[in-house]
Request: fold
Amino acid sequence: MSERDNFFNLDALEQGIARQLAEGMSTRVFPGQEAMISIVRIEAHKSGNIHSHPQEQWGFCVRGSGTRKQGGEEIEVSAGDFWRTPGNVEHGFSAGADGAVIFDVFAPPREEYTRAGEGFS
Reply:
């Protein structure tokens, strides 16, 4: 394995593990030993299911905007905003008029995201 195998690009859609999370919402997943990155692309006005998981999750809105639903609250976010979601807290995201690209970090990695598939679990 070359060290080049540990380098990635946000817009290289051929990299990572592909998952279709919901209609209009897809991700490319990059698992590590202690943490995992998920680059989520959400089309305009699309959203995913409210869900939870035991892993801590950090999210960063790279592009676009939307509404982060977390723990029963709705918080507007735009490019540059980031947030923490503790494990087992219900959450979801609805993209704004221009869609959104979200950079998520999970610790520890989510086992179900280590393979291609559909859905949040």
